[in-house]
Amino acid sequence: MNDINYSTSIDKCILSFSHDRYPSRKKANAVAIKKAEREIASNSNGVSHLILRAVGDQIDNLKFLFLINGIPVMCYAIGNLLISSIKEIVIIGSEEVEQVATAFLETVGTQGKKISFVREDPNNLNLFNTLQLGKNRLNPKPNELVLFQPGDLPFMFDIEGILHDSDIKSHNLILWLNSRQMMFPDYKDNPESEFVRRNYHYRALCKETNELHEVKEPNIYPINLSAVDSDIIDHLHSTRKDGNIIKAGVRKILSMPLKILKLLPVMIHHAIHFKSDLKQFRKDDKYLFGMHRDNFDRAVSIVLDTKFTTKFHNDPAFVSDVDALEDWEDFEALTNYANTQFGENSLTRIHPFGEELLFFREKKMHDLKDKVGMYKNFHSYINSFYKSLKMQHVPFSNGNKYIPFEKNSKNDKYTQKQAHAVSWYSDKCKAIKIVS
Fold it and tell me: Average pLDDT, whole number, for the chain?
């Protein structure tokens, strides 16, 4: 098994604003619509009309470029790292991403960080290549973990626990899993407190705490790129949604016959104990895959031939990525509600880099309209995209003003959900400002 590292913190980050593309817009829209229709038919907790890129698009439909409160998603993600203890950042992305990143950093500064940019390869858009591009630029030590982070997590501004976690010095890969019970402990008694709606396909039993967790795949990865096979990570990451990771994992294991013998004790334990242990918590439960967490950690450590562990966190911002139009609108609704409550500068109340983000919007976004096709008429562009995915409404039905679709309902669930979100982010923001 690969040697472990000796660092006690993470200093370097690969921030990815790169994403693969479908062969045509027709194919991309068909995939997005079909997925949403499946979720609607099954009455899923979260419905997602995916934001997908496609070859031949006149305007690159890149989710990282989408505007939240008039500010690109990617700028929030960069801002999150600028207020962290990360020392070196490499940004991976397109020409337009580079234009936005350059304008943003020229306006708000680098906060003492070493930041560089690497252009994505349009003919090789996959996680494996992104990790290699980042590794080559960062040049990490053989025993050093770096943080790999997709750039679609605009409010994930509290990452110090990830960067200074005690398991960094004894593992080469850490998956911070999204646990519904930890992020939204009151969701059963108070459904609107679950202000980020997602589908949790996995179950994890934790022997040390005697708890059942409904789990969703992680969005960030502390990883030793010298000790973990990037090809395997790419394969698992690209299939991680909607439970497909299990099929991919099984196929990978079957292609490695020598590993099967080592996995036998783990598999036998799982076959004998998991379902019976799960029934102690729930007699009936629908899920795609479940394991005891410690048993899962042993299995993955064998497959990857390295020290691996999973952990849970209690921060909804870790699961609140912008993969779909519903995700984007959650954030647009959040900032819109905050503005109605506290005024146009309310972003400073719910995001610790809010002042700088608003300053950038004022100074640079007008100029970027001439450089980034999506920004020439963003409101019209989003409305058109909503229609192309057969959504029931458009967000800017009144020209340039965002009109919350759910606000027209006769109950107050919309207000409750937004109030919970604003309150949670406001409290978190205050805590960050105190320790910064």
Answer: 90
SS3 state of residue 378: helix
Residues 191, 196, 198, 200, CA torsion sign: negative
The three-class DSSP label of residue 336 is: helix
From residue 49, how far is each of 35, 36, 95, 153, 244 by CA, in Å? 7, 5, 26, 17, 18
Length of the chain: 436
CA dist., res. 414 & res. 116, Å (int): 41
Cβ neighbours for 401, distance < 8 A, ≥ 6 positions apart: none
The number of beta carbons lying within 10 Å of the beta carbon of residue 296 is 22
H-run or E-run covering 146:
strand 146-150
Give the tokens for residue 236.
Answer: 């698992």
DSSP state of 100: H
CA–CA gap between residue 432 and residue 436 (Å, rounded)? 6
What's the pLDDT tens digit per position in 82-117?
Answer: 999 999 999 999 999 999 999 999 999 999 999 999
* Integer Rg of the chain from CA: 21
The residue assigned the tokens 């992104």 is 130
Phi–psi pair at 181, nearest 5 degrees? -65, -35
**Rounded Cα gap, residues 15 and 81, in angstroms:** 9
Whether the Cβ atoms of residue 355 and residue 348 lie closer than 8 Å to each other: yes
- Tell me: the pLDDT tens digits for 9-58? 999 999 999 999 999 999 999 999 999 999 999 888 888 999 999 999 99
d(CA 315, CA 55): 35
Tell me the angle at which helices 73-82 and 95-108 cross, rounded to the nearest 10 degrees. Answer: 50
CA dihedral 77, 81, 83, 85 (to 10 degrees): 160
Domains of the chain: 12-318 (3.90.550.10)
